[in-house]
Design goal:
393 residues, alpha/beta, Archaeosine Trna-guanine Transglycosylase, Chain: A, domain 4, Transcription Regulator spoIIAA, Rossmann fold, 3 domains, seven-stranded mixed sheet, six-stranded mixed sheet, globular
Amino acid sequence: MSKNRLRLKPGREKSIHNRHPWIFSGAVADEPFDAPPGEIVDVFDATGDFLGRGAYNTNSQIRVRMFTFRDEEIDVGWFAARLREADHWRRAMLPPDTDSYRVLHAEGDGVPGLIVDRYGEGLVISLSTAGADQLRDVIAEAAQDVLQPAWMLERSVGGYRREEGLDDRIDMLFGETPPQPLRIRENGLSFLVDVQGGQKTGFFLDQRESRAGVRASAADKTMLNAFGYTGGFAVYALAGGASRAVTVDASGDALALARQNHEINDQHVQPEDLVCRDVFNFLREDETEFDLIVLDPPAFAKSKASVNRAARGYKDINMLAMRRIVPGGMLWTFSCSGHVPLSLHRKILFSAAIDAGRQVQILHTLGHSFDHPINVYHPEGEYLTGFVCRVTD
């Protein structure tokens, strides 16, 4: 048992019985105010019954993030067991000729605050909460023992850490610094990844299955890869027989990697097909029409307060894209914000279609790749939604 005890108010234990991993401050009756951020606490209901064990943080409205609903130690062995299980079933499902994937996905795998991504022979670990940060050395030891990486980089950055009262940190945990950029394989294609300075942990691993879907549908099509980052969707489109793939992104550094990604896959791309521009302005001003457009913008809604403004942005960018698609063409459109659920995303597409004056059919819904699972008890973990649409007159 932990020396720190936290008691809930009467009737506030239902979510814990339902295995939701978060306890908010309003549910707490008595809390260990002397416990530092990230300290492990035992949680009890109002009658004194043990409910589970988690990480406590007075800096956050989420007072406790539950690691377990059983009386068990949160130690090296605990993390090792979860990493071993998570890695085992993922390896069994990985597509051939793929060496990079998410090993462990925070609450999706029952370990709040911890992301572990494999890139070839190494690991990139992200600690987003005070609890995971407090257990940094324990996590690193478990990951090294179970996953046997050649190197292990911690890349703990972003808004979630600031909400937890933590500073950003990028540091080598084990081995020598990996080459920059690092070359990986996915579905038989090669990509150069910046694991130290790129988006997320270096690559959008959660879009693997959607990239494969674009490759399967790209033959003989002209394709626009909007918000294209390092060219992943465009590389897949050309590998699938697309006649042309244009990538637009506001980052010159990302486009430099995109050019290299085409080259290492023996794909010839004209300089004018790598466009460093704001995507909104490109779609407003360029009149080129495409058979296939992929819209994979950054998260416009980073908080509940920004959802209305974000919805307008998503509506505008989808409307502009719909106007640039030939009759019968395809739109693959995404939102990577947990504050924009699938139902709202669908309504946004409805508004965009009305304003674009186009007929739009939804053919498929899209989401996370399988290695980014959603915990059924934690629906807040669903952050990536998407649709495959057919656009006609």
